[in-house]
Design goal:
Layout lengths: L1 H10 L4 E5 L10 H11 L3 H12 L2 E2 L2 E2 L2 E2 L3 E2 L11 H17 L28 E4 L2 E6 L2 H18 L9 E4 L6 H9 L4 E3 L7 E3 L2 E3 L3 H22 L6 H12 L1 H7 L6 H15 L26 H8 L1 H8 L9 H14 L5 H5 L17 H10 L11 H6 L6 E3 L26 H6 L6 E4 L4 E4 L9 H6 L6 E3 L25 H9 L4 H11 L6 H7 L19 H7 L4 H11 L6 H9 L8 H10 L13 H11 L2
Parallel strand pairs: 8-9
Antiparallel strand pairs: 1-7, 1-8, 2-5, 3-4, 6-7, 10-11, 12-15, 13-14
Protein name: Reverse transcriptase domain-containing protein
Organism: Rhizopus delemar (strain RA 99-880 / ATCC MYA-4621 / FGSC 9543 / NRRL 43880) (Mucormycosis agent)
InterPro entries: DNA/RNA_pol_sf, RT_dom, RVT-Znf
């Protein structure tokens, strides 16, 4: 659908799409029609007979206000919710789909076979006539004749299967986004009154995905999505959830609406940042001091919470489209996705290979290559730009090298800043055409504009003044040997893009195994949250509160002993009012002698001491039953002992 819309927008064509509404599509399937279709497909008669008995000879009783009615037989229709119903409906609907696809009189959306600016004569893929997912049907119409032909085909199908088309609820939209008054007036005479184009306030939706033709429609959809997520956050905020529970709810429940649409929908980066902020506020509500936002996205085994980042998750979801395209050369067959996607990339970006625009940003020519475009290419390009790519083991042919952008294999010894003219500053006169080339102009120049294949040497050489080139002044400007350092080896075919997100080390003394133990052991959730905040110095001790709100907390002094600044260590155990309690507990339950370094290592580095054997049985029974008290510090005591017992 997205690729078809891009094709129509670029051609400014007059094709439209109908989103059909079938009246009670599952309930109207006739049993005899389904039987004949299944037999025609070659299903065993015994299996067909069994399925028909299960679906069409069922006796049904109704419970009306406690009274059971007399039974009646279900004589038609597929039960919605039954796992077999979608499969049987697809079988019943397949003959109609085949009749549309095989009808040569229906043109649908045709991909143009016009040559590209570089002279590529690409073979267009087959026209797109109909898309179907269960009973959600999208029909592409080239002209009014297509509509009449489609209606004739549907009438044939309806007479055989008992189906019925509800034109009053059918939606139509312009594939190019342009208004088509002729189409609108024609469709209104046929009973189709719902019309969408770029002037409509909201986007039409197919399978839950928005199909927008303007920025205003995209913004309206995004704002609605944000409101839904905020409402879900407000609803679940009333639950008493731990940090890990909130992250799980956010990733799997609240964000699920977002993950679905991000597979195909281009969402601006500021919107993704706002959605990430909503998740951050939900996870850290009622927590002070706050964690840093980027900290939440780190894996739990290194001290984070593993909240999914919307901007990075959008890139991950593009794998479904990129993987078959990147691996298509290694497979014997080409899928439909690869066929249409490869053609669209080559045709719209004038690329000799569909991988060029994906690998080299300077090959993304035209409006579709912009990062803020509304099309599906935006997500694909963002994903490829975020990956680490290495060409160390790549051996491109000279023909491939000639098609590459010059900026991807040249290295300037003295590059100018982006706002200045490209090229070396001192040897070139300000009046020279070379000095007037901007960085954007440099990105448009290909290797073939400056280099040529030397058949005698079997390698590329720089063009001479006598060779034909659209940039003769560039060849002249390249002649001094000290201007550029040029290497045509594969090592120079490197595009170092944004590296993967580096995981910060919050507490280097805690190993991945210890973090894994911390999250998997049977520790009550509130106690784990307190301990977790303590490990990251996010407990509301007096010194932290004084640094954040000095006007409210005028000094960092401990309110219990009134003698020392209350740091995290002082807050937990080093205060002389709390220290004897820890020492008594340690001497009672722990084998090793008590010391402040050992206690500090146990609490802050998860290096657990050994529990005395005489207390192991008692602790196994009693500690899981203990719950944290209102005192945050001493709620850690039983769970520290439990963690010590469970540690190897």
């Amino acid at each position: 659908m997205q690729l078809a819309k891009i094709e129509a927008e670029q051609q400014q064509s007059h094709e439209i799409c109908l989103l059909l509404d079938q009246e009670k599509a599952y309930d109207r399937v006739h049993p005899e029609y389904l039987r004949q279709v299944m037999l025609q497909f070659g299903f065993p008669p015994s299996l067909v007979s069994t399925i028909c008995k299960l679906f069409f000879e069922t006796h049904i009783h109704l419970n009306i206000n406690g009274f059971i009615t007399t039974p009646f037989t279900q004589e038609r229709g597929l039960r919605q919710g039954d796992p077999l119903s979608p499969l049987l409906f697809n079988i019943a609907f397949d003959p109609f789909l085949r009749s549309i696809v095989n009808d040569t009189a229906i043109k649908g959306l045709q991909y143009r076979s016009s040559p590209t600016p570089s002279g590529l004569n690409l073979v267009p893929p087959p026209p797109v006539k109909i898309l179907a997912y269960a009973d959600d049907i999208a029909v592409f119409l080239h002209n009014q004749s297509d509509f009449h032909r489609f209606c004739a085909r549907y009438d044939e199908y309806a007479q055989a299967s008992n189906a019925k088309l509800n034109l009053g609820k059918t939606e139509a939209f312009s594939l190019s986004g342009r208004p088509h008054p002729t189409w609108q007036s024609f469709l209104s005479t046929q009973g189709i009154t719902t019309w969408h184009d770029r002037n409509s306030p909201s986007a039409v939706r197919y399978l839950g995905f928005p199909i927008y033709s303007s920025i205003a429609q995209r913004n309206a959809f995004v704002n609605e999505l944000i409101l839904k997520i905020q409402h879900a956050c407000a609803l679940h905020s009333q639950r008493q959830l731990s940090f890990r529970g909130r992250v799980t709810v956010m990733n799997t429940l609240i964000y699920s609406k977002l993950w679905y649409v991000l597979r195909l929908t281009s969402v601006p980066q500021p919107t993704l940042q706002k959605l990430a902020s909503i998740g951050y506020q939900f996870v850290t509500q009622s927590v002070f001091p706050k964690f840093k936002q980027e900290f939440l996205f780190v894996d739990r085994q290194v001290g984070g919470l593993k909240l999914l980042s919307p901007s990075k998750q959008q890139l991950v979801l593009q794998r479904k489209w990129l993987r078959p395209l990147l691996l298509s050369r290694n497979s014997g067959s080409v899928s439909t996705i690869v066929l249409y996607l490869s053609y669209s990339i080559q045709h719209h970006f004038d690329a000799i290979d569909p991988l060029f625009p994906l690998l080299f940003p300077s090959s993304r020519k035209g409006f579709l290559g912009r990062t803020n475009a509304l099309n599906i290419f935006t997500n694909l390009f963002r994903t490829m730009d975020a990956l680490d790519k290495s060409y160390q083991h790549t051996q491109p042919s000279p023909a491939t090298c000639l098609q590459l952008p010059l900026s991807n294999i040249h290295r300037f010894d003295n590059p100018l800043p982006e706002h200045a003219a490209a090229g070396p500053s001192t040897p070139i006169s300000p009046s020279s055409p070379l000095a007037r080339l901007s960085h954007r102009s440099w990105s448009k120049i290909q290797v073939s504009d400056v280099f040529v294949f030397d058949s005698h040497r079997g390698c590329l050489r720089k063009k001479r003044r006598t060779d034909t080139s659209p940039f003769p002044f560039l060849i002249k400007g390249l002649e001094p040997p000290d201007l550029f350092s040029v290497k045509m080896t594969t090592a120079r075919l490197r595009s170092v893009l944004s590296p993967h997100y580096a995981l910060p080390v919050f507490n280097p003394t805690i190993s991945r195994h210890q973090w894994n133990m911390f999250w998997t052991e049977d520790i009550p959730l509130k106690a784990r949250d307190v301990w977790y905040r303590l490990l990251h110095n996010k407990l509301p001790c007096r010194s932290s509160l004084h640094n954040i709100l000095p006007s409210v907390f005028v000094d960092p002094v401990c309110q219990i002993c009134s003698s020392t600044a209350e740091s995290s260590t002082h807050f937990v155990y080093s205060c002389h009012h709390k220290h004897p309690i820890w020492e008594y507990i340690w001497d009672t339950y722990i084998d090793t002698p008590f010391s402040q370094p050992a206690l500090h290592s146990a609490i802050f580095s998860l290096n657990m001491p050994t529990v005395k054997s005489i207390y192991k049985k008692y602790l196994l029974i009693s500690v899981p039953c203990l719950h944290p008290t209102r005192n945050l510090v001493f709620s850690l005591v039983p769970h520290l002992l439990w963690f010590s017992l469970c540690s190897p």
